[in-house]
Amino acid sequence: MSLTHFDAEGRAAMVDVGDKAETARQAIARGRITMAPATLERIREGQIGKGDVLAVARLAGIMAAKRTSDLIPLCHPLMLSKVTVDLTPAPPDAVEIEALVRLVGRTGVEMEALTAVTVAALTVYDMCKAIDRGMRIEAVRLSHKSGGKSGTYEAE
């Protein structure tokens, strides 16, 4: 079985994972959003007019992981068994974001974890942009992947 996003005519196509074994799979992605120290302080003190930034971003990240196949072309719709998104203030000027995604299935969940982190960061940006348009979403990356034929990956 060849895993490729091209069909016999060279057109983009979803990979057929029908013959792959179901295995427990997990992915962890991380990233951060950097901002002015005053913006982080306002987030920590609950002084953002749109509400609890970290709670809303956590929910947005979870929802995004569940909808990844609607956002990323050729990505399989998956029945996820667990999604967590943690946002941790990192003084003086950042929020660290980590997403963990699990399932038992035929394809991995790396895209879902990466999407969760990215959308959580975008949500922080959206909720705080009125006071800090210079925020930067940085270092979004896969940090762990396990399960499936390719085995385990750990970022350095």
**Element order, helices and strands?**
EHHHEEHEE
Give the % helix.
25-40%
Overall form: elongated
Distance between the termini: 31 Å
Helix count from the secondary structure assignment:
4
> Uncertain regions: pLDDT < 50 for 5+ in a row?
none
Strand fraction equals: 25-35%
Number of strands: 5
Largest sheet: 5 strands, antiparallel
pLDDT averaged residue by residue:
92
Sheet with most strands: strand arrangement: 2-3-1-4-5
Radius of gyration: 17 Å
Content-based structural category: alpha+beta
Explain what the structure shows:
This protein has 156 residues and is an alpha+beta fold. It has helices at residues 37-44, 53-66, 68-71, 110-128; strands spanning 23-34, 82-90, 94-105, 136-146, 153-154. Helix 2 runs antiparallel to helix 4. The longest helix has 19 residues, at 110-128. The protein starts with 22 loop residues before the first strand and ends with a strand. The mean pLDDT is 92.
Concise structural overview:
This protein is α+β, with helices and mostly antiparallel strands and about 160 residues long. It contains four helices and five strands, in the order E-H-H-H-E-E-H-E-E.
Chain-wise SSE layout:
Layout: E1 23-34, H1 37-44, H2 53-66, H3 68-71, E2 82-90, E3 94-105, H4 110-128, E4 136-146, E5 153-154
Helix pairs in contact: 2-4
